[in-house]
Amino acid sequence: MYTKIRVFGVVGALVWVGVGSTLSLVPLTLQGLPIAVLLCLTLAGISLSFFMGIKTARQFWAMAHKLQHQTYDWYRQQHPGHVHPRGVNCHSCGNGRIHVRALMGGLYHREHFCTQCGKTLYYSPEAST
Ligand SMILES: [Zn+2]
């Protein structure tokens, strides 16, 4: 599951490299434009590949890391004063009403969040309670 998310990040980065490379090669087909314009297109393509590729990969890898590590056990260790036998309350505002929503995009995880301030407290896999 977490490896799949990381692979998606790498694939996303490669897509950006493809888009950027295509854009950087466009000047080869354009004739008669000032060299500065052609150079700008090439640089735009290269920087699009580089920055958007890295950004996409980092987003997916960060999401995989959060889903894998920001669990109920993690929350209990990080905020022992906010986990009680009756349940959990928000470490940010103290609210005790925590709701759960499924994450979309084939992540098969749920987000446990505070109904008052909206803070995400932890994540759990969909199969468990
Ligand atoms: Zn809160």
Structure explained in plain terms:
With 129 residues, the chain is α+β, with helices and mostly antiparallel strands. It folds into two domains: 2-68; 72-125, no CATH class. The chain has helices at residues 2-25, 35-69, 72-78; strands spanning 83-84, 87-88, 98-102, 109-114, 120-125. The longest helix has 35 residues, at 35-69.
Contiguous runs where pLDDT drops below 50 for at least 5 residues:
none
Number of domains as seen in the coordinates: 2
Rg: 22 Å
Which sequence of SSEs, written as H and E, runs from N to C? Answer: HHHEEEEE
* Count of individual helical segments: 3
Distance between the termini: 18 Å
Which strand order spans the largest sheet, edge to edge or round the barrel?
3-4-5
The total strand number stands at 5
Largest sheet: 3 strands, antiparallel
Helix content: 40-55%
Write down the overall geometry. elongated
**Structural class computed from helices and strand pairing:** alpha+beta
Bound molecules: zinc ion
Binned strand content? 15-25%
Mean pLDDT: 91
